[in-house]
């Protein structure tokens, strides 16, 4: 008797459904995004970036400092940046990336613009945020970079400018932070560059303005007496430095903007 044929093989099981793709991690802002940030947003971002030691954040820190610089070209935006704490945030960036030329250059330029014009309260706030010793530290760390030396000198000028009651203290603070030595060192290192000599002399004259003992200190540190001649005044104001000035005329330091 023929046997019954074996039962047909069971149909193969359906393949398992593919796993649901893992959603990508949220991506934070990019340097390009920072170009649209408002003052409070850029300050908070910069504070967050400098709260942790992450070298991968260099590009973002540079972008934030650059954004502060650009915002502070406009008077009203500069006021908002100041109120938001931009000076302290920028100083934090300088401290974290001491030898990063790009960060230091943009940070110095941000301080220049933040302290430009006649806003003496901005200057005092920047000085109280330790801007002066960090400007000096940038100049010392990057002594061979002529752009950093120039921008550092202008930042010192803008911090020291003014005829307000705190101006003399700001100048003394600059000197005690090593500004006189830093400027003289920059002039000597870049003595073949006429612009370096010009900005150096202008900076020294402003630091020692109305503080005779600082003029003596500068000469003792190696400054020529001609470098620290009293500033000619007109109508009670500083003729040679009518206002602290911003970076709009410092094309090389603007890095394409």
From TrEMBL:
Keywords: Repeat. Residues 1-33 are annotated as: Disordered. InterPro entries: ARM-like (IPR011989), ARM-type_fold (IPR016024). SUPFAM superfamilies: ARM repeat. Residues 1-29 have a biased composition (Pro residues). It comes from the Eukaryota. PANTHER family: ARMADILLO REPEAT-CONTAINING PROTEIN 6. This is Uncharacterized protein.
């Amino acid at each position: 008797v023929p046997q019954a044929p074996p039962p047909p093989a069971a149909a193969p099981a359906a393949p398992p459904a593919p796993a649901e793709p893992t959603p990508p991690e949220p991506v934070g802002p990019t340097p390009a995004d920072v170009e649209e940030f408002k003052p409070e947003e850029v300050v908070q971002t910069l504070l967050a970036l400098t709260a942790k030691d992450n070298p991968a954040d260099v590009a973002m820190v540079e972008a934030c400092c650059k954004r502060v610089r650009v915002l502070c070209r406009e008077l009203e935006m500069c006021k908002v940046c100041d109120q938001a704490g931009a000076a302290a945030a920028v100083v934090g960036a300088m401290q974290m990336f001491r030898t990063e030329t790009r960060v230091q250059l943009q940070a110095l330029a941000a301080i220049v613009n933040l302290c430009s014009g006649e806003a003496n309260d901005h200057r005092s706030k920047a000085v109280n945020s330790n801007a002066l010793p960090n400007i000096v530290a940038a100049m010392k760390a990057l002594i061979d970079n002529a752009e950093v030396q120039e921008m550092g000198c202008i930042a010192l000028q803008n911090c020291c400018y003014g005829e307000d009651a705190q101006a003399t203290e700001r100048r003394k603070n600059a000197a005690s932070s090593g500004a006189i030595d830093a400027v003289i060192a920059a002039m000597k290192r870049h003595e073949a560059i006429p612009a370096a000599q010009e900005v150096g002399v202008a900076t020294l004259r402003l630091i020692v303005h109305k503080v005779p003992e600082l003029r003596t200190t500068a000469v003792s540190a190696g400054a020529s007496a001609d470098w620290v001649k009293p500033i000619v005044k007109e109508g009670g104001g500083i003729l040679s430095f009518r206002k602290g000035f911003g970076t709009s005329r410092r094309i090389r330091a603007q890095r394409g903007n």
